[in-house]
Amino acid sequence: MRKVGLVLGSGSARGLAHIGVLKVLHREGIPIDLVVGSSMGALIGAIYAKGIPPDEMEKTFQRLTRRWTITSFFPTPHISGFVGGSMLERFLHTFLENTDFCDMKIPFTAVATDVETGEEIMLREGSVKKAVRASMSLPVVFVPVRYNGRIVVDGGLVNPLPVSIAKEMGADVTIACRTMPNPKENAKSIKLRMKNWKIPLDIFVRDGRIRLPNMKKMFFQTLSVMENEILDSNLQKANPTVLIELKGGSFKPADFHRADEIIRIGEETTERVIPTLKGILKG
């Protein structure tokens, strides 16, 4: 019998769409034999692999407020990153508690990046909570995590959608879920803004019509461009059996309080590929 691997990619708040994907796969009886996740995909994947049903996940994320998001993601600065991660770790504990990888109901791997070497790190032993925290440690936003003697950060930097790892784990059929927004729509606008940076700073001060780009938006847009390039390259090599691409909806990276909308898009997108997926599994 063929082994089915589920691959959940990075995407910040858009990664909540993975819950919608899981709801449909669960409802349609699609078997999942192993799970691989990167960044936000590592969080949702770990919760599912532990045995927590998608509906229960949904209820918890629906309770998140804008205030919680701001408190968790933008509190006082830390020397190694803007957020120490204590709020995030408490949230992770509500789902993962002290779970070890050997306790998971479904084999699971989280992906992270060795910040010193740039290597892709597969996290699959020890504390699941710590592994997920490491996989979600976006540089400059979250403080890095020490994991088995290495300093690791967000897995999306090297493998935003780790299909290759699912295949290494023995998956014959890979279902990959891409939630990252495509930055191409904004590419021209971003390039124009970056050209403006070449103008001396005093011009920005004197001329009220010219303004510096919003640093936060530029950071996330630059990250999106970079990760999408890596993702496209990796997809060409790994070639998942079924690719679920989430399109539509204008969501900011910290829009976790819009869980209902994001999860619904995940459901609707997955429902469209179910006939194809069932055909592949029957074949």
From TrEMBL:
Task: Write out the GO MF terms.
Answer: hydrolase activity
Xref: InterPro entries: Acyl_Trfase/lysoPLipase (IPR016035), NTE (IPR050301), PNPLA_dom (IPR002641)
Domain PNPLA, by residue range, is 6-167
Q: Tell me where the transmembrane regions lie.
A: none
- Motif annotated as DGA/G, chain positions: 154-156
* One Pfam family this sequence matches: Patatin
Residue ranges the record marks as coiled coil? none
- Keywords for this entry? Hydrolase, Lipid degradation, Lipid metabolism
Q: Does the keyword Lipid metabolism apply?
A: yes
Going by the entry's taxonomy, the superkingdom of the source organism is recorded as: Bacteria
**Designated name of the protein:** PNPLA domain-containing protein
Taxonomic lineage from the root = Bacteria, Bacteria division WOR-3
